[in-house]
Every structure is written in structure tokens, then in C-alpha cells.
Amino acid sequence: MKKVGSVLVVGGGIAGMQASMDMADSGYKVYLVESTMSIGGVMSQLDKTFPTNDCAICILAPKLVATGRHENITLLINTTLEKITGKAGNFTVDLKQQSLFLDQETCTGCGVCAQECPVEAIDFFNEGLSKRSAISVKFPQAVPLVFSIDQDLCIGCGFCKGVCKAKAIDYTLEDKKTTLNVGALILAPGFDEYDPEPTQHYGFGKYPNVVTSIQFERILSASGPHSGLILRPSDGIIPKKIAFLQCVGSRDKRHGGEYCSSVCCMYTAKEAVIAKEHMPIVQPTIFSMDIRACGKDFDKYIERAQEEYGVNYIRSRISSIKEIPESNNLILNYESEDGKIANETFNLVVLAVGALPNQSTKELAKTLKIDLNEENFCKTKPFSPVETSREGIYVCGMFSEPKDIPETVVEASAAAGAVNVLLSEVRNTLIEEKVLPKEIDNIGKPPRIGVFVCHCGINIAGVVDVPAVVDYASRLSDVIYAERNLYTCSADTQSNIKEKIKEFNLNRVIVASCTPRTHEPLFQATIREAGLNKYLFDLANIRDQCSWVHMHEPKEATEKAMDLVRMAVAKARKLVPLQEQQVSVIHKGMVIGGGVAGMTAALNLADQGFEVFLIEKSDKLGGISNKIYQTIENYDVQELIVDLIKRVNDHKLVNVFLNAKINSIGGYVCNFTTNIVFGKDKQKKEFQHGIIIVATGANEYVPKDGEFLYGKTDKVILQSELEKVLFTDSEKIKGLKTIVMIQCVGSRNEENPYCSRMCCSEAIKNAIKAKEINPELNIIVLFRDIRTYGFKEKYYNIAREKGIVFLRFDNKFLPEITQNETQFSVDVATSRGDKITINADLVALSAGIVSDREGNETLAKMLKVPTNNEKFFLEAHVKLRPSDFATDGIFLCGTARGCATISESIAQALSAASRATTILSKDILVTEGVISKVDPALCISCNRCADVCNYGAVGVKYEQGLMISEVNPLLCKGCGDCAAECPAGAITMSHFGNFQIEPMIAEAARVEFGNGRPRIIAFLCNWCSYAGADLAGVSRYQYPPNVRTIRVMCSGGISKSFILQAFLEGADGVFVGGCHIGDCHYIAGNHDALRRTLEIESDLESIGINPDRFMRKWVSASEGKIFSDTMTEFVEKIKKLGPLESGFKKSIEIVK
Amino acid sequence: MIITQQKNIEEIYDMVKQYSKILVAGCDGCCQPPRSINEAKVLAQMLELKARSEGKELKWKAITVLRQCDDRIAATTVRPFIEQYDAIVSLSCGLGIVMMNRIFDNILTFPAQNSMFGGAENNAENTFAEYCETCGECLLGVTGGVCPMAGCAKNLSNGPCGGTVTGKCEVGGYTHECAWVKIYERLKKFNRLDLFTKYRPPRNYRNWSSPRFIEINKSYTNEEEPKKEEK
Amino acid sequence: MAKRPAYSNLVKTMRESKFLFTGELEPKKMVDLSSILHSAEEMKKTGKITAANVTDGPQGDAYTCSMVPCHLVQEKVGLETIWQMTVRDRNRIALFGDILGGSILGLRNLLALTGDHSALGDNKNARPVYDLDSTQLIDLVSKMVDDGTDLEGNEIEGGKIEMNVGCAANPNSNPREPEILKVGRKVEVGADFIQTQTSFDIDDAKEFLKELEKFNVPVLLGLFPIKNYGIAWYFNENIPGVSVPKDLLAALKTAKKQYKEDKKKRNEAIDKINIDFFEPFIKEIQKTTKAAGIHCMAVHYERLFEPLLKNF
Fold this sequence. Notes:
The complex is a heterotrimer of chains A (1152), B (231) and C (312). Chain A contains 29 helices and 56 strands. Chain A is of the alpha/beta class and 1152 residues long. Chain A has a five-stranded parallel sheet with strand order 5-2-1-13-24. Chain A has a five-stranded parallel sheet with strand order 15-22-16-17-18. Chain B is α/β, with parallel strands linked by helices and 231 residues long. Helices cover 29% and strands 20% of the residues of chain B. In chain B, strand 5 (87-90), helix 4 and strand 6 form a beta-alpha-beta unit. The longest helix of chain B is centred in the N-terminal third of the chain and has 17 residues, at 37-53. Chain C has 312 residues and is α/β, with parallel strands linked by helices. Chain C contains eleven helices and eight strands. Chain C has an eight-stranded parallel beta barrel, surrounded by seven helices. Chain C starts with 8 loop residues before the first helix and ends with a helix. Classes of the chains: A alpha/beta (1152), B alpha/beta (231), C alpha/beta (312). Chains B and C meet through strand 9, helix 6 and helix 7 of B and helix 5 and helix 6 of C.
């Protein structure tokens, strides 16, 4: 049977999106099937994410847009899978799309229908906390942005059809069935939260002030029901004392599941911290059994929560909750750690609900004929973590086991990695490449601008006098043609634009409509089809940032729309065509590190047909896993390693170098050159490759200086040594009476302030094994928290059932071992306050995982990639880019990134390989068009650009006798920070350069039109503040029409001169908006913005400008309300100050 | 490099407020932080705003010079514009200001900066620090490469003084390193405490007092040939 | 180097191996020196004080020059003085001239100091001089005394001056080694005696004195009886490296609280605290070290000398 080069991805959450993007980027046609109305999944509901407190929607929204507009991805919303036939490589799938009652292609997402809908129904997105209409969109940033009618709520009044100018609504539309032919399936259907309502668990559903964690997440969100204020449901009063209850529906056979849901400990800590940040008056208390902070940098987060935010942890499982009816406060009864019964009153209780497989996934499994495990999650094996029981069907995310976002993203890429191998021979067979006409050469020709103004139904035209704007635009110089459209984004308008370009010989196009963040790519594609370079387009945002936010001031809104069009024309005059450079890719990879992760990654690439150089520093492959015999699930690790080593050695595309040392790595993505010395005889070798995977692994911690008497007596051994005895010399165990295990040796202390993640399972595995060998054996595990996350919890339960004793100790008093002639014993102070002496025969130390500090540091310097404090490598984004470095073309996996089990390392290896495949599968890599450029004639070689660049993309190079700064177009992300920093004016940010922004500033401040005073110019970064301003529009938060926004990619790209020029041109106030510190889309561009604006601020007074006329504020993409409030407040302030004296205009002349 | 700090705008403005057309000149030389054309432009914009706040008109042009302290380069770059302006504001170090005033005899060049010291950038700390005082009598050979003239607040030749506490200096509130403790540590590291112990006699301050000249490329005539001292 | 003659009573007494005491006088911004003379008289009265230091702009403050009070104390009170001289305010020309003048006035002890930086004082924008450092000042004095010349070898009319020169050392220094090496340098160029910074830690002081033994120069250990809680607190907070022992600090605080109104009782209590702390301290030093004596920096606190020193 012939294989098919397409993939069906089920589920549009973060996992489904990641898998789709990876597959689509690797040359496969992707169908992304989502059962709801928008992709985004649970993450789109989150307020912030741990451990970085990033704004969830800020980091997710760009990913939504990228998935939605990917040319190789077809989104199928409101769709479910009905039937499947065929085999791996060639499946036939039947799908059913439930009717939306409107035409998805025609709907422009303008939202008039929802406003007119008379039925107020419940909004599920806000978890039942606010209202929405029967016809609705899932959330403001939804992709695709189409509305749908909820059949259960619709009363059939017909209002919406009446108001829909696009004529998209059609009540007669029926469900649609589709049949697709795909090579593989990736399942990412997600999970359900445990619902405490049916059983009124902890009074949920009975007491109004008991909410679930996901409801609380919405309460916290700036775009949530209370705009970020924490108000409790019963009376809308701020709850001072909030109790968070862990393990609701987790680790509980009676409610929910027996397993651990893995994420609740951390999201609860995050919710407590954010609550405290939003309202310092809040006192959060968290009731938990164990604190399972076993991810990278998670323990530090918990520590900060406790120390900096005063979050109170009580180790207890709450037995019951009672409500005080008069106050709706809640009394919690619990047994405190010292065994006393206590009760305490709280104003609000948040239940940290666990994750459950949902009903639809059970049906999905039945349809697909894949096995589920006893908990009804998808069954997988530890060494093939993304494979289901049916070949050709892969799984990722929560469906296989509860896990948090980074692991989910890793698995999504890993699933894609697995598919890559299956379908590599049919790669690039089903994707269509668009044939585009040759670009018209416009260089040197005077601008001929066409302006298309959108009515957006009545969204714009209802407020703004569109004909007047068109008339005004047509009178601007260089504007050759202007027209208005009912919907400029509709398909017929696209062909109209193309015709007009030809008819009027237009060489610049402006659309005045909605926001460039969603619609720019569409119009760019249109003008490109007409032969114009896509960068000769600009968009005036007269809807989200004009008609929607000035609904009651039509005159002022019309003036503002004219201004915005005039500003866009000013910029358009200066637009230049940008060429995206093409670089050919060397289809080879280098993998550094020959452990399980490195070998898996190397084999994955080689199996796809890419040559791989596998570099191992020791004389043996296998890494740290050589010390491991079995996984906790009883899978044979040695067998795995032997198999991997054999496959690596036999594979003709894998070149293994043992005893290898890297001398140098040069080049960049697509084209690296590496020099190594390898083998016992120190041979030299140089090779070229397109990507690098870092899989350098980590080491087992070795206790030092006689810690726990290790090394001083043979009665104290490491878990790995015990494991060796258990599996190779079990007779020794039979003679023993008591084994004591001490957890967290070399972990969670000052030197290594992190959890090593696997030691708890390791100890439990060995304990169970020892007990099997010698049932009489007493085993006592001394621990701080037992961190058997996910299904590993099962083995914790088995261990306890087998009589293994677990004693918690206080980390202030570490267990002490005494050895003399008469006794060998362990003294431990338990958390209950008892002091116990245990006579033992053997002590096993659960030693943690430590990085190879020196080795990693050396390699990090060579690769110019960062590491964290403990010298584990630091990924590009801890949440959404766990396998990538910020520098393109370099990826990471395994314990080099942080502590991970073998199963997790394998998933990470597949993930890194999949990410690498997105590059290796292409013949040519096309660079971004919007990047910085250096004029070597002006460069003074000061290297300030390199100081501010977070991607190593720019810096002074010495080549061919010249020392000049250079931008690597492959690495540049186009933030413009270097251009703003360059003292010599040698760097220009393309598309947002000085010569484009300065005319906009001039036009923005012009005051000939009406009484536009005060006039405020706002510079907003594309990713957060501009998005926040758009959200204010979407949410119709009104603010005074005095603000003219100028979009830049990053606040770091705003030079001081922009701000001064704004004042010089006569602006009465200047606003700079960027992402919150820590949230920058370009890692830390806003840090530079902060520095520059602080410098400007400090001078304003002395140059005769009231510093109150300048404002800097970080506004996130979810803070529409905050944006509108800020603008209102700022305009009021400037009004009080009065106009900046009306200045004279002058032309600025700069000569070098 | 010459480390500079921009004067506050009011001070600069006071110097040039009587002029209506000014040339603002950056310097691409060794001035740190770099003060090139964009800094010149920002300064000019600020001056214009300041002028406007006082109801005056100020026209300006921003330029930059490869090195203002090099008379030939500065003359070549600046001369074409000089006619149209009433005054020059320079963003170079003091050397540049002096040279510009010497080259362009008919127009005043005003400093926009205070020249702080000859220093180098400490990238890890994002600071510029003074490591050499150009004292004319280099001690670095006996001090382990740490300059006590630049590093010690009291320019001690035989430190440390009683004002050092755990390696920190009394000047600046015990935050700066004591150069002499640093010297001690360096010399100890190389087992050269003999250099530390040695008494260094009073310095020759003639090498460190203004004005200083050094003759270069001198063409000698036969008569001027220096005679060897006879012993 | 060979020992130069003892020109002053102080150095003479030191060389006789008598355990001696010196006091300290601090002229401030003043036109009338009667309070200084009064203090000197009080010291003289005890009969235990061999000489008194007169400070030269301590903490970098601009005060009355030290030469004049030195002269007047010797002339009017008959108490020998140790003329403190910092290199902060004078270049080698002024230093030379002043020393020459002082010697004419009969000043026989000079303590060569670097001096607290002017940035610490009450005229912070002053340009500090530091033409010489304290070691070089000792060198200058040595040349004036031993050779009868200035630093360049220009001869003094009438020959050599008669003066002994001392240097400072800091028992609180950390690291310790460069401090010791530095003292070595000073001794090498001609320091006749050493007066140390104040110490509150007996073990530290003993260890430090032990290390100074190798230079074979008389050492006066500095002690600082504390007149009130405020001074102690200031010391603790503002002079890093010196910490007043917690018990002493607490006792002073209690005394301050206990006798808030009654100044006399408060003074009595404070004196007792000081005596209880320093008397055993001094005895221990006398008994167990080779220190030549104690430099008691009880500035403006002369009433303590009588009760504190009565047992010595």
C-alpha cells in the first residue's frame, strides 16, 4: 500500500498545534481537527503560566495565528472523527463537522451578530462566570475567528441574519461529512478537569465560595469576568483568606483517579502568587500532602511563593468543609502535621482539580481501536512514549498521562518526530507550492498608493464616516486611488484589489480596516499575487483602535481614522521592497552526547535519511543509563541500551565518534562547521552540518566529604549501587533485615536547589524489588516530599501496600548516620517532631542528578547559548519552546536540559529531532524580511548592537581587513533593538526604520484637523501592548480619541529620538507601551526600552517638558481594560496640563 | 578610551542659547559611551525643545566626526558646514573640544560633555572604570598590573592605608575595591610579595603636571644631535 | 637600620620599657583652645599620661591646625605632645616647611598618617593632595632628622632637626598580611614607634601585637573608651571593620535608658562600664604582650583617665 504524505491531528490545544506546526514545517499536509470552535485548548483559558509568570495568551496568541495561517495546515473546527480504516502510512478517515449555521469562509468575525443577539446565555470560556450570546466566538483571540450559533440557546429570532452584512449566516446549513486520506494520526485530544459538582465534593456546587482552580484562573485573568480583580462569587467582595486544596480528584480512588495529576501543585502555587500580586491583601494558604515541584526551576518557585509572597503551606488533606450560612465563609477541618485537629475559617476555597480523560476520548479510542490503560488514558510504553497500540497512530499531551505544558509540547514534537520516520519517503508530496508572478521592479519609481477603506459591515461604518475618509485619502499626495469596501477582507475584494493594482499601476497598498496582527498576512498575500513585494503594504487600524473604542464620538473617530490613514500613507511613501534571503541547507545533523537521548535523536534523523555525526566524550555509548537496570514499570533498560547501541553502530548514516572533544563550532543554522578530535589516537575531523542537537546528559551526584558516611563505610551506598546489587547479586539482599533509604541527597539544597525528579521513583522501584527478593525485609524511606507524579503514584501505593514505611523528615534536620563497633543506625527527626533511631543493615542514598558544570559551560560558550544557575542548558522558552534554543538551528534534549526520566528523555530526543527536521527537510531556508541591516560605511565598530542583541545575530566582525558590524539574517528576529541602540545610525530596522517611523510621527502630531487636542502619540510593541489595544477594541472598552498609535515590533526598537521628535512635532503627550518585564517576545528588548525611556524621562524636566507628558506602561495582550483605562487616565492628565506650546515645524537634516 | 558623561541639558543650553543655528557634532573616536550621530541628533532635539520652551527658535544640524582630536580629520569633516552655523556643540572629550576650537578659529565650540577619565569597559558589570591615570611614571610592573594611581583614592605609592576594610575603600562607602589589597592579592598569587614589601620613594610629579608635551617625529639637524654624556 | 636617638620624652620612656599611656586631644573648628588646654591639664594631673596626640583634621574635617595646639599644650600645660600629621592636605613642600617650623617650636614627636580622605569630611569637594604617602612622610622626616636635608637632598641651614617619628597600624585589618608588610615598610624607612587603631577584641589585639614584635619597635595599642551610647552606635554602624562588642553596646544602651534624666548618675554608670571593660583589657595586654603601652583615645573624655589608670 502506498504511503500518503499527510497527517491528521486530533485536538487543537497546545499539543495539537505544536504537532501540526512541526509536521507542516517538515513537508506534510496537516488536517487539524478540533471539536470546539477554536484552537487553543485549555492554555487559552489560563491567566499566567509557571514558573515564569508569563502571560498565557501573550505567548499563545502568536502561535494561534501562525497555526491558523500556515499554508500546509487545514483547520477543521467543530469537527469530530467518525470512522477510520486502513493501516499505518495510509488511513482513510471519515469526519463530521457540525453545522455552525454560518459559512466559515464568508464570516469575517466582525461580531455584530453577537451584539445583536437577544439571548444571554452562559459563557463557557469564563467557566460559567459571565454571560455571552447564543451566537458567539469562543474567546477574543480565537483562531479561526468565526462565530457560531449555539443551537440549544438560539430562539430563532433571525436578528443575526438581518444584521450580518457579509451574509454569512444561513440557518439551513447542515452538518458536513468529509473523508480524508492520511498517512498517520496524532492524537492530542487533551483532558477534562475533574468535576466536583456531581458529588458536591467539598461542597462544590452547594457553597458559592468553593470554586475550582480553573474558575479561579478566569477570576485572576485580566480578560476574565472581573477584569483581574479577585472577587468571590457569593457577594463580590475581596476574599482575604483563600484556601487552596490540592489533590481534588487526584491521588484519590473514590473521587477522580488514583494517579497524580502532575500539574496541580505548581498551578496552585502560581495562582496563590498571582492572587497575591493582584491584591496584596490576600492571604493564601495551600493544603497539600506532598509538594510536587519536580520540574525545572519549580522548587525555586515554591520557595519564592513561600518566602517572597508569604504563601502558607499546610501539609494536610482536608477532611471536610462547612459553610457559615450568614457570611458564606467556609470552615476547614484538618489534621495538622503534628497530629492535632484544627479548624480555620476562609473566605474562599479553591479546589485544585485534577485531570481526567474525558468521555469523547474513550469513544475516540474505541473508534480508532487503540488501547487505553486502567485509568482510561491512552496506553503507551516507557520506551515509546508517543506510540499508541495501533501502528501509525501517535499520541501526545494529557491523553497519555497528566503532564504540564512543556512536557506536552515536547511530546507533540516527539509524535511529529515519530511520524517523520514513518512518512519520510512521501515528504513534500502533498503540499502545494503557490506559483507567484514575478515581482514588479519598483525601485526608484515614485510612490503610487492605493487606499482601500473597509466598512467592516457596520463595525467601522457605523461610527466612522467611511466615504469621508475615502474622499480625504484620495486627496493626499501620492494617493492615486482610493475606494471603500463592505468587507475588504472578503474574497471578492481581494480580486478587486489585484485588479486595481494593475489598472492604476499601484506600487503601494494601504488597507484601512482591522488589525495587522490578524489581517496583514492576508493582504500581503493579495498584493504579492498582483506582483508587488509583500512589504509594500501597510494597514491602518481604524476598527480595533478607532471605531470600536470611540463608538460614541463619530466625529472624532472619523478624524482619527483620517489621521491613521494619513500616517499609513506617510509610511507607505517610504516603504521599500524587502527580499527574503534564501540559504541552502546542509542536510546533516550533529548530536552532542551519546546517551539514550542522543542516540534516539540521532537514529530518528538517520531513519529519515539525514546523515548524523554523533559525538560522545567518553569511550562508551549509553551515558548515565548504563547504571540503570529497570524502569519503575519493570521495563529492561539494559536491553534498550544494547539495542540502541547496535542500531546506532549499524546505521550507515550515523557516524559515531567516541572519546571525542569538540575544538570549535562555527557557522549558523543551515551551515555549521565543527572541528573535533576523537578516538584514543586523537584523530582530527572537520564536518559540516545544518543543525545541532545538544544531548550532553548529566551525572549522578556523588556525596562529598563523607556526607552520610558515604565512602567511609560499605554499608552506605547509592541507589544506583543498590540497583546493581538487586539486579545482579540479589542473594546479598536476602541476608538483610533493614534497609533505610534517604531521599534528596544532593538535591533541593543550597548547592543544587532543584528536585532531581526521578529519585523518588528510583527509591520506590528499588524498595519494591528488594521486598520481592526478601519479603521479610524492613524498608524505611526517609523523604521530604514523595514526588511520584502521574502514573508513578501507583507504585507509591504498591510500595505502601507492601509494608514499606515512608517517614517524612524536616530538611532543617537531616538524618544522621551513626557507626561504631556496636551499632549502625540512622537518627531521624520526623516532621511530626519525633526523634527516631533506626538500626539498619544498609543505607541507600537517593542521590540526585547534577549537570556537568564545566563541560556544559564550555559548550554553552562555544554555541553561544545560555545555561541556568545550575548549568543545565536553558531552552528558548520554558513553556512553549522546550526543545529549542533561542539561537536557531540548535536544539536540546535529555538531562542536558534538566532532570528527566528515560521515557521523558526519549520523548525529548524525538522532539529535538522533529524540531531539527523542520530545518533539515527543507532545501532552502527563507529568512525573515523584517530584519535589521547595517550600513558598513557608517559603523563605528563600537559593538553596542551585540550588547543588546539577545540572539547573537549582530555584532562587529573582522573580515577581509574590515571591522564592521554585521547582521546575520538567519538569526535576526527583527526587534529593532540594535537599530535603536546604534549611536552611529548605521543600523536600520527594515519596515520599521527611522525613515518610515519619523514621517508617521510627523503626521500623527499634525493638528490642522479639528480640535484634536490634546494629541498623544503612543508607541506600542506588536506583541503585547498593540495586542492589548486591539483587545480593548474587541471588548469595546472606550477611551478618548486623542491617541494615535504607532506600531513597532518591540518596545526595544523605540529610539530616544522618536520620543523627542514626537514632542518636537507638537505632541502633547507620548506613551510607550511594551510587554511586561520578563514577557518580552524578544527575550529582553523591553529591558532596553526601560533604560532608554528612563534616560529620556530624567531629561524631560530640564528641556522644559513636564515629565507627566511622558508615560511608559507595560500592557499585556490580555489587558485590554488596562489599556483603555491607562489611555483615559493619560488623556485626562494631559488635558489638565494643557497643550504643549504650539511649536513651529522644522525639517531635520542629518549628514554624515 | 576616554570616558565621558553628558552635561545636563540646561548647562549645555546656557552655553549656546544666544545662537540660533548650531552644529551638533558627535565623535566616533575613543569617546565612551559612543557619542556618534544619533546621540548628536538626540541632543540637538533636546536643545531645540528647550529653546522652544523658552520661546526661541533653534536650527541645527547633527553630524559626526571620525575623531575630533585629529586636526586633519576634524577639519576635513566639519569645514563644509561651518559657514552656516553660529556655534558648534561637540560630543567629544575635552581633546576634541580644544582641537575644534584650535582648528576653527572663528567659531566657538562648546562641550556637551564632561571628560571623566581614561578608562575601559567592564562588560560583566556594565561599568566604565578608570584603570590608568596617565601619570607618566608607570608602577604597574611592581604592582601586579593593578594601578595604585588610578585605583587608590589617595594615589598611594605605599598602601594600603587605614581606610581599607575587608578589601574595600573608605571612599565611596566601602563599596569599591581597595587597589592595594588587590595589588597584594595579585603579587601573593605570583609569589612576588617582595615587590609589595619594597619601599617606593616619592614620585616624580613633573611627569604628571600640566601642560605636558612629547615631541615626536623631530627632524634633527647636525648641530642639534644630542651629545652623549661623558662619565 | 640603626636606632636614632630618642629626642622625645615619649620615645625615651618607651625605650626604658616602662608601660606607658598616651592620650588624645582633638582641636575642632575653634578659635579658642582653652578646652583643649583644660583637657591636657586633666591628663597631666593624673600623672600617668606620658604624652598626648593632637589630631590633624580627623575624618577629613577642616579643623584648627594641629601645630598650634601642640605648641601651646607643651608650653602652657607642660604635657608632651605627639603631633599628628596627614599627607592629605600638604604637598612635600608644605610638609617640609611645617615640620621644620614645628621642630623650632619644640615639637619632638610626629605621627605620620595618610589621613581620612577629604571625600569623607565636611569639605567633600576639596582636592586631596597626597603628594606623599605616610611612608614617604616618614622618609622625609628621617631625611630631615638623620641627614639634615629635604627629600631632594637640599641641606637645611643649621643642620639636622631633632624629632622622633611614629606610624599607625590597624589591628582590625583584613586581610592582615598586607597591613603587616606595610608596617614593615614604614619601620624600614625610619619609624621610631607605632600607635595602633582602636581594638575591642583582646584576642585580635594580642595576635596583632605578636605579629608586630618582629619589627622590634615600641607599639602603643589603641583603645577607645566610649563616652556615650551614641558614639558606640556610630562606631558600629559607620566604621566597618570595627565592631563594639555586643555586651558593651548593650550595657551602654541600658545606662542611657536607665538614667535618662540624671546626667551625673549616667556618667558614673558609663564610666564604670568602661572601667570594667578596659581595665582587665589593659592588664591582659600589659601582662601577656610586649606592647610598650596603651594609646588611650578618650577624646573629650578626660575624666576617665583618673579612675581608669589608678591601678597602673
